[in-house]
Amino acid sequence: MQEKLVKICTKTFGGISAIGCVFLISFMMVTIANIILRRFFNSPIHGSTEMIQYLALLTACLAIVETEWSDSFPSLTILTEKLPTKAYNIMMSVVFTINSILFVVLSTLFFSDLQRRFALGTITPELGIPRWIFSLVLALGIIGLTLALVAKTILYYRSIKTGERLNFFQIAGRSIGH
């Protein structure tokens, strides 16, 4: 079951990250096009600043899930690496349980905000896009992050029994150097 959970999470979160890459490329292309049009034709893209803000939001919300799953963010592990494996696994299980609970609460707050924005019907000033769409994307990003935390919590609890020290950077198929 552990291998199946790892495989499902790695494929799902990797796919979500790939979609985030598409938004990142779109973000860069809009920025470059806007610079060229502004410089040579004195005619920037209407709503480009707003568009770039929302593409950045989409990119971040989609990339954060894979970043959490694969431990691809900087972290200080000086003290935790010195712990015995069982103590380390217990500590990480507790930490990820607390994180999961807090992010479930945060997800409900984002959905409350989504419902409020949907009811108000507010739109963005330049492009007239309903603001609830961006609240939805943000809420889904937080939910994805919560699911990654829950999956890691399950794997850490299982590792207490197996005595294995988990390395999510390797579990997610990342390698150092090559």
Structural overview:
The structure is a single chain. This protein is an all-alpha fold. It has one domain (2-171). The chain has helices spanning 2-41, 48-69, 85-120, 131-162, 168-171. It is elongated. The mean pLDDT is 85.
Task: Output the structural class.
Answer: mainly alpha
Estimate percent helicity.
over 70%
Radius of gyration: 20 Å
Percentage of residues in DSSP E strands: under 5%
Q: What is the first-to-last residue Cα distance?
A: 29 Å
Number of E-type strands: 0
**What global shape is seen?**
elongated
Mean pLDDT: 85
The SSE order reads HHHHH
The major β-sheet equals: none
Unreliable residue stretches: none
Q: What's the tally of helices?
A: 5
Number of individual domains: 1
Keywords:
single chain; 178 residues; mainly alpha; 75% helix; elongated
